[in-house]
Protein: Arginine decarboxylase
Amino acid sequence: MPALACCVDAAAVAPPGYAAFVAGDSSLPGVAPFSSSTAAAATVNSNSTHWSTAHSTALYRIEGWGAPYFSVNDSGNISVRPYGMDTLPHQEIDLLKIVKKVSDPKSVGGLGLQFPLIVRVPDVLKNRLESLHSAFESAIQAQGYESHYQGVYPVKCNQDRFVVEDIVKFGSPLRFGLEAGSKPELLLAMSCLCKGHREALLICNGFKDTEYIFLALLARKLALNTVIVLEEEEEVNLVIAISKKLSVRPMIGVRAKLRTKHSGHFGSTSGEKGKFGLTTTQILRVVKKLQDSGMLDCLQLLHFHIGSQIPSTALLQAGVGEAAQIYSELVRLGADMKVIDIGGGLGIDYDGSKSGNSDLSVTYGLHEYASAVVNAIRFVCDRKSTKHPIICSESGRAIVSHHSILIFEAISATIPTAMNPVDLPSILEGLSEDARADCWNLIQAAVRHENEACSVYADLLKQRCLDWFKEGTLGIEQLAAVDGLCDLVSNMVDASDPTTTYHVNLSIFTSIPDFWSIGQVFPIVPIHRLDERPDVRGVLSDLTCDSDGKIDKFIGGETSLPLHELEGNGGGAIGRYYLGMFLGGAYQESLGGVHNLFSGPSVVSVLQSDGPHSFVVTRAVPGPSCGEVLRAMQHQPELMFETLKHRAEEFCGQDHGDEGTYAALVSTIARSFHNMPYLVAASPCSLTAMNNNGFYYPNEEDYNATVESRASEEEHWSYCYA
Structure:
């Protein structure tokens, strides 16, 4: 960091003590490139002249949150390990190669998709399913448990068609089923499970009306292994009445409202005052109603949910033990109990800390979780001489989070106050004596490293100058110069790192809604250049016109993220800089909105292959276009285009002798309706208007396509012509 002497005119007459400031004081604090607030970052020697991928792995805690699916390869890029610990070196997939393949123009062999981009890796999804099942089977064998495990996937975590279909396909050999919490989710689950294992469970949760229960009983008629879980006591009356009308013998479950709960954000749906479930008193009344109706044998499942992201196995065992006691009592009361559904709660380690003190981490892995569940149920059932039940879980977050990666670009950066030379005499000229005194006091406080005094003098000086500016006695040049001096001094004496704002081609409200809604933090890492030292501390600002559209909280409690300087940020075209948000496969897509009418991202699915790049793209879907997102808000893009086309004809049409401009304008408008709402990165061939009546096209390929399409607009907008 240069001393202030490099930025001011030393010829100005200075008060005593200023000479040292002019000469440069080497004791002024420099800007450390990395925060020392995290243990991982502290292990990295930021003064070392050599930087390796191992440094980046430690800095971003990749092994903590990413193992066994993500690592840094020798090229400095993030690699995906599709089979987890069983992945061989030649099977690792370079994430940057995927990005280049899908985003490069079609003219050079790419797919031409626009950012932001979701990369799905179904092999990871399959591995998560198999690992979860294997963990329970190992615990069952080790503890002599006399039943089996079969999980269900709660489709609310990610209802994407291909995600759900993959889970049914991969889970079929494991008898893996689905859980629904609404009528459309039930229809989805019914359809998908027609291709699943015949014993796979279809768990029907959520509040229910007559139509919901009718659909669930219809699924039973279709030979699907359907369980209607009672969330409210009144639902049992509907189930009894409709099942008799349809002559269907239902399989019924009850959701117990346990006393056990955890105190984190995700524990708010548990405990005695939780949103869902029946108290013990209500459960007894349900048992009585079923008994009186001759249907007590239909009660076969007990469900409960402690809350998502259960932090420790101690809390888990307490809740499971309480539920197992209720299960055993229902057996004693004559119910034909078969299944205990432990709900969700299997957490993932978002920050790699292996800590149970926050909603971001858990202290256990899959095997510890499964062992704790099996042990708690076995202990209670053995004590009560109850037959061991089938164990079911609804571990959606743990299943889908890892397989989906959000990739987005940093398109520009706003650097903290530039270290421009400060012309001190011109600043002092025209200021009052009080303001001049404030200037010198500010500089002397900086020399003495008096941070609090600097802040006081800077605020006082800026306020005086602002008042004069409002009165019209101070010009904007002097106001800006004073602001520059104050910011410069502040940056030099401030102990915290200066933070650069990276503008990213993304809507946080659409793609990372949990961040702004509940403060959920996800690991965000550059997917390349990890063999280079990240010398910048940055926060991320999205494209929306909203002050909440920024990410300024990161794993490890950090308020900024180590990033690399954008190539070409000092002028010219910006080099591509890609960031990845990991562990976001659950909830983000279904919860995302369309703030500022920014649509969802493009999506690709990638499988591991034996080809030269170790992967093959099996599915590529462009993100919703401007027209599609407008239509979702009840607008009519076809009529909008007609209106604009007639307007163009009125002002730029043949009557104005400018047919070329009219054709280009109409074609550009049509293409805008068909393009995604996000920005298109500039390329060298797009920095000029390409001699096309002043119209801008993202690149030469788009320009050529537009030229070819001018004579046949109906190919894109056939409905615009009679």
Remarks:
- Residues 526 and 579 are 4 Å apart (CA to CA).
